[in-house]
Amino acid sequence: MISDLLERLCRQGAWRLGEVVVVPVTSGQVELRHHSDENTAPGSGLRPLERPEELRDLVRYDEAGRYRPLKGAPTLPRGWIFTAGDARALQQALDFVYPGATASWAAQQHGELRVVDLRVTLNRQTGMYRVTQKITNEQADRLVGRFCRSDEGCLRTILWRLDRDRPVTSLPAAKFDPAADQLGRAGRHLPIFCAEACNLLVAEARAVVKQKPA
Amino acid sequence: MANLKPNNSALIIVGHGSTQNPDSSAPTYAHQEEIRRRRLFSEVHCAFWKEEPSLREVLQMVEAEEVYIVPNFISEGYFTEKVIPRELELTGRVTRRNGKVLKYCEPVGNDPRMVELLLLRAREVAPGVPAKETSLIIVGHGTGLNENSAVAVKRQVALLRREGQYAEVLAAYMEEEPLVSNWRVLTGQRHVVVVPFFISDGLHSYQDIPVLLGLEGEPTAAASQLEVFRRNPYTCGDRLLYYASAIGTEPAFADIILDTAARFEAPPPVAATAA
Hints:
The structure holds two protein chains of two kinds. Chain A is α/β, with parallel strands linked by helices. Chain A contains seven helices and eight strands. In chain A, β4 (47-49), α2 (52-58) and β5 (80-84) form a beta-alpha-beta unit. In chain A, α1 (2-11) crosses α3 (87-97), α2 (52-58) runs parallel beside α3 and α6 crosses α7. Chain B has helices at 26-38, 58-61, 78-88, 114-125, 147-163, 183-186, 203-213, 253-265, 270-274, and strands spanning 10-15, 43-48, 66-71, 94-97, 100-104, 134-140, 168-173, 191-196, 234-236, 239-243. Chain A binds chain B through residues 1-2, 53, 56, 60-61, 67, 69-72, 95, 99-100, 103-104, 106-107, 113, 116, 124, 126-128, 195-196, 198-200, 203, and chain B through 18-22, 29, 33, 45, 49-54, 56-58, 60-61, 63, 78, 82-83, 86, 145, 222.
């Protein structure tokens, strides 16, 4: 069970997932907040969230009120605190903030995480995205370097390659290293795995092939 | 409502999602929340074509062995027949893989209660307005990859006409004849009620259709940030136009999703589906 793995993780102290810090408190309860609010005392301005759905609605927008279609973007709003009563509630809350992240991590722990290279993803596309098959390796490499970069793109750790024998060369090695925190912090963290390119990247690949901004 | 008992299986509600409009996935999430509250399934997940979790990663999130997959789509078509099966690697109505049994259900728009919900929505948006003096327009997308949405709208219109409550019931589309932008010519009654046969108040129902109806100048913000529905009725010459939220935002869709999953196990007899 994913929740059992999370429970075990919490027994060893605080940990981070993307921009969220998970801090075990008492009797199986854990607190979630933005990592930059880690040292803000509860009750001193952090908005308490009681249900995972409140967190879901909050992370839909960034602090400027802009829609966040990419959940891995480093634009998680600050200023809130969510208390999960048990590991199951924790799992639900994290699934709203970083959908599928804990499940991918659990699958990786069990050696069951399937990685799909970009070329395979693109070759599968039909309809308006079929044209993405025409992107060159050089164009794809540049696109990934621009779109997926951790500082202003996405905090996921990329596991796929452009093609079987062709790694991405446009991003630092840390972007592909599960042991590296994509925000460059020290301390325990879970990586947010990217085992296959998302539809947003596929849509950007279409824009590159069509040579117009997405 | 179909008789669904609490069980140990999982439910995945599949939505289209959008990278542009935050309202697109909102109904799918709302139905997830309501169904979780009822504790009928051990897990209830959402998955999206254009948002996260993606169709590629959602199965990893599922721990139950038996999984019902319900497309929160208004009709059969490109997405239900091609994209969803491809992305989830389904091999048919039932797929057995890695110890799981994946049960691929019909899209919610096929549910026989759609007519009832369309009538409810039409009454809600124009309270106290006599149906016998009202033209009811059901709007679909039409054309291209969504070709089946026009078929689905026509089916609903035929059923609504048979109900005989409204003076007239018409189908209209965004991208094919009869065009919704011609509503003044198409309709004969003073009161005109427009119900989008869409899953969410996404770009189409919240931004594009109001422009086509002449209610808004240019598509602007997301639906939730506008007041399109609060300004009913719109006075257009001597006509009064009432514009409803997309049918898929109706909370009863949570029941429809459950019914769709229940129907997977016990399809109604052929005579009942034809009724």
